[in-house]
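Q: Hi! First time doing this. I have a protein sequence and I read that you can turn it into a structure. Is that right? Here it is:
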Amino acid sequence: MSQSASHIIRHSAPEAPLKDPVAEVFLSSLRGSEEFSTPYRHWLLSRALPEDVAQAITELPWRPPAVQYTDSTREANNATRTYFGVENRARYGVCDQVAQAFQSGEVVSAIEQTCNIDLTGTSLRIEYCQDCAGFWLSPHTDIGVKKFTMQIYLSKEPGSRDWGTDLLDEQKIMVRRAPSTFNSGMIFIPGSNTWHAFTKRPIEGVRKSILVNYVGPEWRARNELCFPNQPVPAPGAR
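A: Yes, that's right. Below is the predicted 3D structure, encoded as structure tokens:
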């Protein structure tokens, strides 16, 4: 005698845990990135973040800082710089979402493998940049305490495709201008030869981007760090 369908119990498989969409999209972007050896080793990425996350960053309620670009360094305007620190992570979900992704062991390990670096003991620092007309950066190399640098470009204004970072050789001659289409990215590992700049050029609107760094334990401005008391653990502890 056949059993009635109403008495058949079907056991469905348990749902897989939800994955972090920011981490998943970034990992896919990193796997598909283009690597270049000149003027120094660097990587170019497309669709670095989920589109809605990238857009949400641009809609954070922070006005561009009112600064005079009389100096060619970001440090000259330290008082007006904005970070995905503890306070902003608590206040704005997108800041926490992005920070959690880049703090995750999966993303850290993928960056280490791709870039052949060790980030153990470093801390995550994410700056939200809004550069306006008159902005420029003279040729410089990132300070040694920075162990990883990535910029993700977040502008859609006319002309913003030409707002990428200038990568220079050791004679300070531009070799490449990083593409700066919306949600594209550029990575390099700071060193004595990683000269880069932003040659003054027209900016109509706001040049928006995030700068993602992993910095060494000697970094003093702890308020700039996403997780000031949680350095990246060793691989076996992630």
